[in-house]
Amino acid sequence: MQLRIPGPTPCPPEALEAMGRQMMNHRGGEFAPLLRSITERLQRIFQTNGDVLLLTSSGTGGMEAAIVNTLSPGDRVLSITNGFFGERFSDIAVAYGADVTRLSYEWGTPVDPDGVARALREDTAIKAVLMVHNETSTGMANDLERIGTVAREFEKLLLVDAISSLGCVNLPVDDWHCDVVITGSQKGWMVPPGLAMVSVSERAWQAHARARMPRCYWDFSLAMDSYRKGQTPWTPAVSVCYALDTTLDMMLNEGLDNVFLRHARVGQKTRDGIKALGLSLFPDEDYASDTVTAVSGADWLDIPRLIRVLREQYDVIVAGGMGKLSTKILRIGHLGYVCDEDIDLFLEVLEKALPQAKK
Amino acid sequence: MQLRIPGPTPCPPEALEAMGRQMMNHRGGEFAPLLRSITERLQRIFQTNGDVLLLTSSGTGGMEAAIVNTLSPGDRVLSITNGFFGERFSDIAVAYGADVTRLSYEWGTPVDPDGVARALREDTAIKAVLMVHNETSTGMANDLERIGTVAREFEKLLLVDAISSLGCVNLPVDDWHCDVVITGSQKGWMVPPGLAMVSVSERAWQAHARARMPRCYWDFSLAMDSYRKGQTPWTPAVSVCYALDTTLDMMLNEGLDNVFLRHARVGQKTRDGIKALGLSLFPDEDYASDTVTAVSGADWLDIPRLIRVLREQYDVIVAGGMGKLSTKILRIGHLGYVCDEDIDLFLEVLEKALPQAKK
């Protein structure tokens, strides 16, 4: 089976072996060095001097944590959306009573940093900007570096869903002025789902001290207090910690720059291959993601049928679209434990499957 | 290493092997039958015709979910506490704006069902009763059957933390009038942490329809909508699902009554052994838990030293006390993957270690 979805991504044998290890006391002396070592290596990959906290949840839990830890009900928030996960981020903020203005772009079209600046200039009451770095739903990378500069210029808190980009493409959290950045274990980190990892800047801690949205499980202060004792406030996903301990070494041994180059190369190879087969990319190619490729197909192509043929006849699993793109695109994950040969193999299979998926 | 803490509990080899399986598409056709089959078997063990939902979190996440899904800010709640986890349940309700009255008993002393009835008679505005079935912090089983009868008599919603009892001792959720019952994967279920499992009665769904506490990640409606499609709303802890699929079969093959008898036998053996060594039990013995034994020691015993000796010289891991009992008791877990021989071995080691732990 070739799993080519944007997550859970395939795990290397070392990670799967670690998942099978026996339990330990998460309040004992063995767990503390494991937690500290994982956290310190995460800080290197996040490229941050800030804190990084582990939450036992999916990435969405991390998004909720980012919001409830830094905002109060009624706070004005600018939420930049150009895809399914941008909408989700907005929806969570609304659920907790934030006063959300959506700066919406068509799904698959880029965010205009000047538009962000304009929105912040027009509404000085805005406290925070929410955005998705890598829109998994459209295969698009938003220009976080430029938007981060804008958010800093206007002194706004910047909360970033980087669930499917961090650890795969360059995201220097501090240099790009990101205050809370969320990622999830089952993406570039090459381990199963169960952990969200969240960075917290000094500015985010200041906002946290004033933030009054209700919280307990997600509370950053409780997480930080426990971390100082080498613990998490609630029982952590111990097995995922074991596995992450292994894959963080793999990532750092490969070298961060090499990890980023590999994802860039694999992303380009995927896009080139897709176009060579006569298929169109869904997003503006200048902003195409190096971790997820979204394909809008061709006139003659029945996308749901293609997904089925790939699965049933070739044992290759790709994802369909999300939300309003449900039957309109297919999405190919190429993040984490992925190499050039995986994509060569995938493109070969895709070429064979295409004639069976005509309308 | 013998892990004798109240969780994470040791996992059988079959569960660990399952943890090491490769990822699958959690939105694909393979995951749906796995999720449905796990859920149906959980319903049998919960002894409920109601729904059972899987949440990717620790048990505490399940407690938070129970509260935010059934209550509104300002709702009056009676929270019965006689231990650390009762306090935690109350604290979560307070954090979300419930108007909480604590019916507190000394840690380790039983809850008086007549006292519960009195409290409900005196304050007719109370909407819900919160309680812990098995107080992991004190090794005590609260009389859920009688309190459930009282709660139903007064037509109150009953939310129950059964994290360390369900799947180990008899807890017929429907017969005992429980509306939301929470458990966690790393306890009696013999798999690693990462999933909370929560039952939802028809009355709880009615309360949910009116409940206005903010929620997104924990939302029962979103979980139920996804379940109908064979999915979870957010990426689940897939590996823990694989493992739970295995251990649920083990539990049902052993037979629920046999699982309960084994825990009763192992609990009694632990208590008898503790007393035979001249040590005292912490809680009222009539209410001693069959899954966790709390030992208050003896005049001559240095409990923190005993815990250290057991760990360093015998590779046996027990837990200390929680909160205000931190250095005052030790706690022995005997739930999930545990048999008589494990306890025989533990008691032998304990006997050897005691002389090295004198004050």
Q: Give me the secondary-structure category of chain A.
A: alpha/beta
Query: How would you characterize the largest beta sheet of chain A?
Result: 7 strands, mixed
Q: For the largest sheet of chain A, list the strands in their spatial order.
A: 2-10-9-8-5-3-4
Radius of gyration of chain A: 20 Å
Provide the CATH top-level class of the largest domain in chain A: Alpha Beta
Instruction: Give me the CATH fold name of the largest domain in chain A.
Output: Aspartate Aminotransferase, domain 2
Which pair of chains forms the biggest interface, and how many residues does each contribute?
A-B, 54 and 54 residues
Count of β-strands of chain A: 15
Distance N to C terminus of chain A: 26 Å
Please bin the fraction of helical residues of chain A. Answer: 40-55%
Number of domains of chain A: 2
Coarse morphology of chain A = globular
- The oligomerization state is homodimer
Q: Using the 3D structure, state the CATH architecture of the largest domain in chain A.
A: 3-Layer(aba) Sandwich
**Which stretches of chain A are low in confidence, meaning pLDDT under 50 for 5 or more residues running?**
none
Considering the protein shown, what is the CATH homologous superfamily of the largest domain in chain A?
Type I PLP-dependent aspartate aminotransferase-like (Major domain)
Write down the overall mean pLDDT of chain A.
97
Strand content of chain A: 15-25%
Number of helices of chain A: 12
What is the H-and-E element order of chain A?
A: EHHEHEHEHEEEHEEEHHHHEEHEEEH
